Amino acid sequence: MVKTPTKKAETKEIKMKATKKTSKGEKALVIVESPAKSKTIKKILGDNFQIEASYGHIRDFPKSVLGFDVQKDFEPSFVVIPDKKKVVTKLNEIAKKCDKIYLASDPDREGEAIAWHVRQVLEVPDEKIFRIEFNEITPKAVKYAVEHSRNIDMDKVRAQQTRQILDRLVGYKISPVLWEKLRNNRLSAGRVQSVALKMICEREEEIEAFVPVEYWSIMAELDKAGVPIEAELSKYQDKKIEIKNQEEAQNIVNFLEAKSTKYEVSKITKKDTQRKPSAPFITSTLQREASSKLGYGVAKTMQVAQKLYEGMEMGTEGSVGLITYMRTDSVRISDDATEMSKDFILKNYGEKYYPNEPNNYVKATKKNVQDAHEAIRPSYPEKTPESIKQYLTNEQYRLYKLIWDRFISSQMSNANVANTSVDITAGDYTLKVGASKIMFDGFLKVYSEDSDDLNKKTIPDFEKGDVLKCKKINPKQHFTQPPPRFSEASLVKALEEHGIGRPSTYAPIITKIQTKGYVEKIEKALAPTLLGKTVSKQLSEHFSNIINYKFTAGMETQLDDVAEQKTVWNKVLKDFYDPFIETVNNAKQNMERINIESDVDCPNCGKKMLVRNSRFGTQFLGCSGYPECKTMMPLNNTGEVQEPEVTDEKCEKCQSDMIIKVGPYGKYMECTNAECKNRKRIVKTTGVKCAKDGCEGEIVQRKSKYGKIFYGCNKYPDCDFVLWNEPTGELCPKCSALLVKKVLKKGTTIQCSVKTCDYSREVEEDAV
C-alpha cells in the first residue's frame, strides 16, 4: 500500500525542474492517459520519444474501506488497481531504460492527480521525471510543453483528493442507510448525483402540481394594397391585454369584425441594432448546443469530442489533433488562436467581417471559472469541416463543424439588423406587426443559434395614417403549460447555474442517475422513476444539510480554493466531517424502514403492490401480501405498470397472437391462448456476424439460467460460438479476432476476445 508522500517528499518534488531539451542521444518516455493520443504525439516528437498510456487512473482507495485515516488529518492511502498492475510493471520497465520521463496526463485537476499517482509508482529518480501539459495536440503546443516542463501541482492534487474523499464519505456512509431503510442494497447516494436527482424530482413535483390557466390570443389578417399582413392584438387602452376566456375573446372579435371598425397605422418605430456573436464553446454550452442542433446526448458529445481532441488519421498527414481540450469552463482563447482566426477571416470573408478589436469574452464570464484552459476551438482554423470531411465519421464531422463554426463566428464582426415595429389601432385596441431585416450578416454568415436568423419576416412599407382592410379575425384558445422536464442539456445548464459540478462531471452524473434506475429518459426528457422519487425524498428529509444546492455549490468553491492555495485541504474535510457523521447517525435512528409502495392494488388480493428489484436489477411490482400472495406485475420505464404489447407474430404451437410482456428478468413473448402457455425470450441482436468458420449466423444477446448476460450465435445448437462481452463488430488489429466491449468500474475498454491476445484500448469516460 502506497501512502501520500510526506512533506519532505513534496519539498523534493518542488525542486524538480527540466532545464534542457532532450538531446539527440537521449531516450524519453511520455506517459499519457489514453493510448489514442499516442500516434498523434509520436508523430510530433519523433523517434527519441516512446509514448505509453496509463489508461486513466492507476491507483485508487482500497475496496470496501474508506481509504483514509480520519484520526491522521484524513491522510489517504492508495493501492494499485488490480487490473493496472501489468501497466505499472510495463511503465517501470520502460522508464528505467529512458533518460527522461514526461507525465502528460490531461490538463485538469483529475489529470494532475493521475500524473502524481504515476510518479508515485515509478521506481526512478525524481530528477528524471517532469510534468508537462498541453491544451491541444499540435506540434507547437506539445513541443512547447516538453521544453517548459513544470512540477506536479500539489495544490491541484490535494483538491482532487479532497473531492475524492468527500465523495467516498458520502457514498460509503449514506448508501448503507438507504440499503437498510429502503430494503434495497442496489441503491447509492452521491454528493453531486443526489443533488441532480433532487433537481429532477422537484421539477416533476412542479409539473404534477401545475394547474393550467386558460387564455386567448387574437390575430387579425389585414390587407395593405393587396399585400397580406398578420397582426397580433396586444393592447387595450394602451395597456397590455389579457384575454381570460372565450366570452371575453368573442366580445373583442365582434368589435374587430364590425364594418364600422377602422384599422389605421398609428405608430411606426424603426431601430437599428447590432447583434453580437456568442462566445466560443465551453463544455456545458457545447453539450447544450450539440443536444439542440445535433440531437446528441451529453455522454455521446464528450466521446466524439474526445476523439477529435486525441487525433484523427488525415491520410498522408498522419494523426492530427483537431480541437483543444474539451473539458473547460473558460471562454479564453490564446493569442495564437486569435491571430490564426483573424488571418482566416480576412482571407476568406474580407475586412468588413473582422472587428476593429478582437472580441474578448473573458471579462463577461462568471466567477470561479478555471481560466487556465482555453475554450473549445479548432486547433487549426484553416482545416475547415468540408476540407477534412472525408477523414471523419458523420458524427465527428457534425460535431467538428459545430465547434469550428462557433469559434470562427465568435471572432467575426457583429451583425447589423434593422427592426421595424408598426402599431395599428382599431378603436381602443392596438395590434402590432413587426419585422427584422439583416442589413449586414457579419458572424451570421458562418453560424447562428437561431435557424430563423437569415429568414426574418418582411412587411411592406407603412406610413402613419395608412388605413388597412380587415380580411379575417382569428381567435385562439391556449392554456398555460407546466415547466418542461429537464433534458440532459437543460439539466447541465441548471447544474452550471447553481454552481454544481464541473465540466468533467456533467456527463457521468447524468449517466449514473440513469444506470441506477433513478431516472429514465422519455422522448429525450429525464423523468424520475418511482424508485428515484422515493430515494430523493428520503435523502432530502434526512440529509437536507448535505443534499442541497447551496452546500454542494459551496463545496465546489472550497475545492477551487484548495487548488488556488486559499484554504487548507484537510481543514475543509474537518469542517465537513463532524456535522456529517452526526447527520448520518440521526438518519440511522430516525429514518423509518419503508417499502416503496405504489398506488396499484393487487388484482388478486387487493393489497398494495410494492416496488421490488430482481436480482438482475430490473424493477417490478410485487404484492405486499407476499408470500401468501405471489402476484407480480412488470413496470415500464416510468415506473408504471407495463401493458402487454401486441405483435404481428403468431404462436408456432397454436397460431394464436403473441404479446410482449416485461417480467423481472426482462422482455419475453407470451401466447394469448391461456391453454397454450407458450413463452419465449426476446433476444437483442448485435448486428455482428458469427465468427465461427462456415457459420452464417448472427450474434445475439442471451441470458444464462443464472441471469448472466452473454452473446451467442442465433444458430444454436448447431453453432455453439459464445462471448461473455458484447462484440463491437471490429476485428483485432493483432490477430483479426472479434473485439469486445468490456465494462468495468474503472471504465470501459475495447479488448480482443481471444484471451491469449493482449490487444486493448480504452474508451474514454469521465470519472464522477
- Number of strand segments: 35
Q: Per CATH, which architecture of the largest domain? A: 3-Layer(aba) Sandwich
Uncertain segments are 1-20, 367-371, 764-768
Going across the biggest sheet, name each strand in turn. Answer: 9-10-16-15-12-17
Q: How would you characterize the overall build of this protein?
A:
By secondary structure, this protein is an alpha+beta fold. It has six domains: 2-152, Rossmann fold; 166-210 and 487-507 and 523-590, Topoisomerase I, domain 2 (Orthogonal Bundle); 214-276 and 415-479, Distorted Sandwich (Topoisomerase I, domain 3); 284-410, Orthogonal Bundle (Topoisomerase I, domain 4); 598-681, no CATH class; 687-763, no CATH class. 30% of the residues lie in helices and 26% in strands. It contains 17 helices and 35 strands. The strands form nine sheets. Strands 9-10-16-15-12-17 form a six-stranded antiparallel beta barrel. β18 (519-522) and β19 form a beta hairpin. The two termini are 24 Å apart.
Would you summarize the structure shown here?
Helices cover 30% and strands 26% of the residues. With 768 residues, it is of the alpha+beta class.
